[in-house]
Specification:
The chain has helices at 3-30, 34-73, 76-81, 84-97. By secondary structure, it is mainly α. It is elongated, with a radius of gyration of 31 Å.
């Protein structure tokens, strides 16, 4: 028997097994009474609520970690007190620490325009 034929036979066997399991699962579902359905739906809702709670806690923990990281790196008040050249140097150093290539350019012609 060739490898290709064996792969096809294994695929067909797996497909038949899956269909067999799905068929008997639906037969089992149709045999349930109202109390059993209530228990199943309650368990599903409880799992959904626990998952939502876990995701919320995870988001809150990540937000707290981001806030703590930013506080360790710099204080917003200190950044606002910097003049523009100090701020550019700080940002350049920050990018270098993060692994990026960064360098300062000359300050000539560096004028802010508003229109």
């Amino acid at each position: 028997m060739r490898k290709k034929d064996m792969k096809i036979n294994l695929f067909l066997l797996a497909a038949v097994l899956i269909l067999y399991i799905v068929y008997y699962f639906f037969i089992w579902l149709t045999s349930l009474n109202i109390y059993q359905w209530f228990i199943i739906i309650s368990l599903i809702l409880a799992c959904m609520m626990l998952r939502r709670k876990y995701k919320h806690k995870k988001r809150m923990r990540e937000a707290e970690e981001r806030r703590e990281y930013l506080e360790r790196q710099s204080n917003l008040k200190d950044l606002m007190k910097m003049d523009w050249l100090e701020f550019e140097k700080y940002i350049c150093d920050l990018f270098i620490q993060l692994g990026f290539e960064a360098s300062l350019t000359s300050a000539t012609g560096d004028v802010e325009k508003t229109s």
